[in-house]
Amino acid sequence: MLTIRERLAKVSFFEVKPDCSSLSPKEKLAAIRCAEAALIMTRLYLKQVWAGNPQILDELKEREDKEGKDLLRYFLIHGSPWDGYHDDETFIPGLCDKPKWGSFYPHDITEDAWNKWLLLHPQDRKEFESNYTVIKRSARKLIAVPYSETYIEHLNEAAGHLRGAASLLPEGKLKTFLELRADAFRSNDYFESDLAWVDTDGTPIEVMIGPNETEIDGFRGLKAAFEAHIALPDKVASAELARFAPAVPVFDQILSQEFKFNPKGAAIPIEVVSDIMRGGEASFGYFFVAYNLPNDRRVHDLKGSKKVISATMMEAKFSKLTLPIAGRILPTYLQDRCTYRGRLLFVLAHELSHGMGPSTVHVDGRDMPFETAFRDLHSCLEEAKADMLGARLLDYFHSYGLIDDKALEECIVTEIASYFQVWKQGFTESHSRGHLIEYNWLVASKAIRFNETSQKLEINVDACISAMIRLSTKLLNIQVSGDYNKAKDFIEYWSEVPPKIMNILNTLSGIPIAVCPIWNLSGLK
Ligand SMILES: [Zn+2]
After folding, report:
1. If you measure from the C-alpha of residue 289 to the centroid of ligand 1, how many angstroms do you get, rounded to a whole number?
2. Cβ atoms < 10 Å from Cβ of 404
3. Please, which residues have CB within 8 angstroms of residue 245's CB and are 6 or more apart in sequence?
């Protein structure tokens, strides 16, 4: 087992100190209030991952010895005592395995007990399947308790900060969102504030805060984890990407006819930002480079969704992780095809693709969101879909002259190099597993090949694009079918870890596994 020193040595820390000089004094104060609320999201998230987390954190904070300080530092990378970069093994001896569904359900709940309860109490289904309830056992009954009750103290405190931030801002979209989100923390109804958030492009500060992703619910894939992202919009970079937006509704229209789902709303704001600070799930582990929110598909259908790309995290991951990997695994003729531009465009297409596809499926005689139908498989299926549909969308942009041949090649080559960056952190996380499906598919399609003699990865870009488009069709058909078993068979067949990948990964030692930001808020003072 690795020592804590060895684990820390694999992480590249970097300081994040954005230039906040464009903000007025009041906007700076509002950003500070939002950062306070983000810290509360972190406290909530830690509880959601494991009820024992706050106690472990307190114990680590009290330790004065070197090992204790190192353990604390590593705990604060993962938000738990389990190492997400090494198959979730515990790095604090003597602790249990990582809970498979956080603290969202009784620890001993079973599929059978869940199904039986809902069969006998169909009136409970809505609350049980809500993204914003915790399932508890009370006197042999199962009950759904809203987040607004379970986390009432923390949420009241966070709402106070959001209202405080709103009071510092003039009338406008950001103020409205902050007020509505503060209301949602109390009412447990996020719909209105989700709709309002889609409108918040072009504001001086980018603020996303609330319960969003359902990755840590390994039981039903339903319960949302709290997170926060406070950032500064980059107007020039955002305008550069906004030129792709008008082509998207037409592409979505074609797709919705082919796969028989409703096209999405017309709003597709795209924002490139520099991070100020993060909280909750966004501030641990994988440090995502982008998000497409809200996740509520009703909002997608009615209005659309907003895509935010973090230039801070993308740049750090690209320069410290992906580029050195490309230097080792790509043949000379492909080296200059691994670029930041390629990464940015692929991530944009990936996020746009999250906003496309079916919203509901018809299974067991009822309509349900497709994430409910696919439960634990949903995240992996959706990430692979976003990658492959993203490639299809980039090919569409290319055919309309929005990107040239070289840019398209850069997108594909950089994406494939980045698979290895993700795999260095393990194979179980949903993006990672999605990449396995894609890689195996590309190998089977003879679009990529590991050259044993040169020990380099040969990539035929044209063949990759055709294969990726075919895979996007497969994945969309599975999503539209709502067929859990079909998805399970497909994912299990295609997500094996080929021995060759392990050989390639072995050649990448010395390159950091992950980046970890250190927030410096002095620019707000
Ligand atoms: Zn994604």
Report:
1. 9
2. 10
3. 268, 269, 270
Q: CA torsion, points 326, 327, 328, 332, in degrees to nearest 10?
A: 100
354 C-alpha to ligand 1 centroid (Å): 7
Q: What is the DSSP string of 310-347?
A: EHHHHHHHIIIIIHHHHHHHS-HHHHTT--HHHHHHHH
Residue type present at position 488: K
Pairing status of strand 89-90 against strand 82-83: antiparallel
Above 80 in pLDDT, residue 266?
Answer: no
First to last CA, the chain: 43
Q: Report CA(350)–ligand 1 centroid distance (Å).
A: 6
State the average pLDDT for the chain.
95
pTM over 0.85: yes
How do 226-233 and 270-280 pair as beta strands? antiparallel
pLDDT digits (tens, 9 = 90+) for 423-434: 999 998 899 999
Q: Are strands 306-310 and 270-280 parallel, antiparallel or unpaired?
A: parallel
- Non-local (6+) Cβ contacts of 525 within 8 A are 28
Q: Using the mean position of ligand 1's atoms as its centre, give its distance from the Cα of residue 280 in Å.
A: 18
Tokens matching residue 394:
């980039």
Question: What is the band of 482 on the pLDDT scale with cuts at 50, 70, 90?
Answer: very high
Distance 27 CA to ligand 1 centre (A): 30
Cis peptide before 294 (omega within 30 of 0): yes
Neighbours of 14 (CB within 10 A): 14
Q: Cα(22) to centroid of ligand 1, in Å?
A: 30
Nearest-CA neighbor of 209 among 164, 162, 274, 166? Answer: 162
Which among 517, 525, 523 is positioned nearest to 19, based on CA atoms?
A: 523
CA of 292 to the centre of ligand 1 (A): 8
Cα 291 to averaged position of ligand 1 atoms, centre (Å) = 7
**Phi and psi based region of residue 459 (left: phi greater than 0; alpha: psi -120 to 50; beta: remaining):** beta
**CB-CB neighbours of 6 under 10 Å:** 9
Residues 6+ away with beta carbon under 8 Å from 443: 449, 498
> Exposure string (b/e) for 218-236, b if CB count within 10 Å is 16 or more?
bbbbbbbbbbbbbbbbbee
Q: H helices within 102-212, ranges in order?
A: 111-120, 125-128, 147-150, 152-167, 173-187, 191-198
